[in-house]
């Protein structure tokens, strides 16, 4: 989760596209904002994923980032600002609604999981809170030596509710309990050990070469049907829990305790409950 510093060029896309030999690369490009999950970034990522799904030339999607942070989670300036909609149902514009609040995040994660093309993440920087949900939704993820991870929600009066849907089916339960509760930072090797990422590598690009080479050889039907097999259980969790967990998240974001936690973070001070 992050405080917001405006990006250098306000009208520049926050998600950049490139395509090479069957792989569409989507780059989160809001480094001054630490690639926070603002409504605009989420909306652009939705659109980019939809375009990749329609592309006959795309065998796989590679999700990566510019700057030192892959994704810092929720945009706290939107969450604490006037007129915030903590539930997408409160937003009247349909485009904005798809990218807003807990339901907007749930839709984004489900879009990645349901995409008929494999989605691979390359992480060379920090990942916090909701950004961890993006990794959980991806089919394969590689983290470099500069990557760090933390579930920071409990320190802000929140909980990793929506992102639990793709993460808890894949992570070691004891590790999830520890890091959900403590908010400790951990490195790429620990992320791989716990199941948060597929592998840690000193050279992520080299580690990705055999993964992407294998995906390029897959047929569209073969990749889509194989992905459906390994994501079926996660999608059942989404079917069962999305409404309840989005409601939990919206309730927490609207609470006085979370307001204090987020405000303290933005003001770079300890919250009132810290000991």
Can you offer a commentary on this structure?
- By secondary structure, the chain is α/β, with parallel strands linked by helices.
- The protein has a single domain (15-205, 217-266), classed as 2-enoyl-CoA Hydratase, Chain A, domain 1.
- It contains eleven helices and ten strands.
- The chain has helices at residues 39-54, 76-80, 94-98, 101-114, 130-137, 164-167, 173-182, 188-194, 204-216, 220-253, 256-266, and strands spanning 15-20, 23-28, 60-65, 69-71, 119-123, 126-128, 140-143, 148-150, 186-187, 199-200.
- Strand 2, helix 1 (39-54) and strand 3 form a beta-alpha-beta unit.
- The protein is globular and about 55 Å long.
- Residues 83-98 have low confidence and may be disordered.
Highlighted features:
single chain, 6-stranded mixed β-sheet, 11 helices, alpha/beta, 2-enoyl-CoA Hydratase, Chain A, domain 1, 275 residues, 4-stranded mixed β-sheet
Distance between the termini: 21 Å
Rounded mean pLDDT is 91
DSSP helical segment count: 11
Overall strand count = 10
Low-confidence stretches: 83-98
Order of helices and strands: EEHEEHHHEEHEEHHEHEHHH
């Amino acid at each position: 989760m992050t405080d917001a510093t405006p990006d250098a060029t306000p009208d520049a896309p926050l998600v950049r596209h490139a395509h090479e030999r069957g792989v569409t690369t989507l780059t989160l490009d809001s480094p001054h904002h630490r690639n926070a999950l603002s409504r605009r970034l989420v909306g652009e990522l939705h659109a980019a994923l939809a375009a990749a799904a329609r592309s006959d030339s795309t065998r796989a999607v590679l999700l990566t980032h510019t700057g030192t942070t892959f994704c810092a989670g929720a945009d706290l300036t939107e969450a604490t600002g006037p007129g915030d909609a903590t539930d997408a149902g409160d937003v009247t514009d349909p485009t904005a609604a798809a990218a807003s609040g807990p339901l907007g995040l749930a839709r984004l994660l489900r879009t990645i999981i349901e995409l008929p093309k494999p989605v691979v993440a390359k992480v060379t920087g920090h990942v916090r809170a909701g950004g961890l949900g993006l990794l959980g939704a991806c089919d394969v993820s590689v983290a470099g030596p500069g990557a760090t991870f933390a579930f920071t929600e409990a320190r802000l009066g929140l909980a990793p509710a929506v992102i639990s849907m793709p993460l808890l089916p894949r992570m070691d339960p004891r590790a999830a309990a520890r890091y959900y509760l403590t908010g400790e930072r951990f490195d790429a090797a620990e992320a791989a050990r716990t199941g948060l990422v597929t592998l840690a590598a000193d050279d992520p690009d080299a580690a990705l070469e055999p993964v992407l080479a294998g995906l390029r050889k897959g047929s569209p039907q073969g990749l889509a049907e194989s992905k459906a097999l390994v994501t079926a259980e996660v999608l059942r969790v989404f079917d069962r829990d999305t409404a309840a967990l989005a409601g939990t998240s919206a309730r927490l974001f609207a609470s006085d305790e979370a307001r204090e936690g987020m405000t303290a973070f933005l003001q770079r001070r300890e919250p009132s409950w810290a000991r």
